[in-house]
Design brief:
The protein is α+β, with helices and mostly antiparallel strands. 29% of the residues lie in helices and 29% in strands. It has a five-stranded antiparallel sheet with strand order 1-2-3-6-7. The chain has a two-stranded antiparallel ribbon with strand order 4-5. The protein binds nickel (II) ion.
């Protein structure tokens, strides 16, 4: 089921999310909905708060070519446990901040630990776009958006655009 995606600014996007003690059928169903919502958008990552879920869950698939097989990953309680000194710059966007993009610098390589939907602990290293994406999604679980890395002027400009967009959406324009 495709879930509506919250648009910034929204207090639910600023919350620090709570960890899972374990997985469950409800969590597996939620993960399916999140992947469906992400692919439909389309996007390469989605975090719980973006659909109003304040628990530590993210989904990702950074395979962007339609010709390549999908590579979905679902993470509960994801945590960066090591990161490279080497940095990478990507132009980031966010499904909660539609049509706005800005360069963000983050570690190029990260090692991430998480619990999968079967309740098993996983650890894997991610690089380049996958590394940027997983860091961006984990930020969401801590109430942080990519625009929080930008200067105040740019952040306020984007926020005003989003307020305007939300007014238009509310009016049904
Ligand atoms: Ni995002």
């Amino acid at each position: 089921m495709i879930r509506p995606i919250l648009i910034h600014p929204d207090p639910r996007l600023k919350k620090v999310c709570t960890p899972y003690a374990d997985s469950s059928d409800a969590v597996r169903k939620l993960a399916e909905d999140m992947l469906e919502t992400m692919y439909d958008a389309p996007g390469i990552g989605l975090a719980g708060p973006q659909i109003g879920v304040t628990e530590r869950i993210i989904v990702m698939d950074c395979v962007r070519e339609d010709t390549e097989p999908r590579s979905p990953i679902v993470m509960l309680n994801p945590e960066v446990i090591a990161s490279s000194d080497e940095q990478n710059v990507y132009e980031e966007g966010c499904l909660s901040i539609p049509d706005q993009f800005a360069e963000v610098t983050r570690p190029k390589l990260v090692q991430v630990r998480w619990m999968d939907v079967d309740g098993t602990e996983q650890t894997r290293e991610f690089d380049d776009l996958w590394a940027t994406c997983v860091q961006h999604e984990i930020d969401h679980l801590n109430g942080k958006l990519f625009i929080d890395y930008l200067g105040a002027m740019k952040r306020q400009m984007i926020t005003r655009k989003m307020q305007k967009l939300k007014r238009e959406l509310a009016r049904g324009d």
